[in-house]
Amino acid sequence: MKLLVARAPATSFTYYVKLSRGGARRGTGNRFVSFDLDVLDAAHAPGVSAPNPAGWSTREAERAVLACGADARVRCFDLMELCPTHDEGDRTARVAAHLFLAFLAGFAARRPGSAGVPPA
């Protein structure tokens, strides 16, 4: 299991993007990526359960999500911790939609014949 950890220096909380083994059987090398929106800076994503004053920028998050989409081992992806009741002007919902589209852009860029992607 690989774990990419981002620590927010102003808080004691740890936010993460988790890559864990998935699939129907062991040894497949498949990954499940769960992206916690709490990792984002509160200025960009106020509508989360635990706003982070020293979080990632949307650009940093987009790079991570794009790389996950391009990785043929990634079979499942989710965005978590969107809290619409705390969202101001749908800013966080828009960031979440943008990140999902970035994942899809990475997914579309996968090369046929690479690990897990059948040849055309």
List the SSEs and their pairings.
Layout: E1 2-7, E2 14-21, E3 31-36, H1 58-70, E4 74-80, H2 91-108
Parallel strand pairs: 3-4
Antiparallel strand pairs: 1-2, 2-3
Helix pairs in contact: 1-2
Q: How would you describe what is shown here?
A:
By secondary structure, this protein is α+β, with helices and mostly antiparallel strands. The chain has a single domain (2-108), classed as 3-Layer(aba) Sandwich (Arginase, Chain A), CATH 3.40.800.10. It has two helices and four strands. The model is unreliable at 5-25 (pLDDT under 50).
Identify the quaternary structure here: single chain
CATH fourth-tier homologous superfamily: Ureohydrolase domain
Order of helices and strands: EEEHEH
- Which structural class best describes the helix and strand composition? alpha+beta
N/C terminus separation: 30 Å
Please give the count of helices. 2
Known CATH architecture: 3-Layer(aba) Sandwich
Helix content: 25-40%
What is the percentage of strand-forming residues? 15-25%
Record field, number of beta strands: 4
Give the biggest sheet.
4 strands, mixed
The dominant shape is elongated
What's the CATH class label? Alpha Beta
CATH topology: Arginase, Chain A
User: How many structural domains does the protein architecture include?
Assistant: 1
Average predicted local confidence, pLDDT:
78
Spans of at least 5 consecutive residues whose pLDDT stays below 50 are 5-25
Radius of gyration: 15 Å
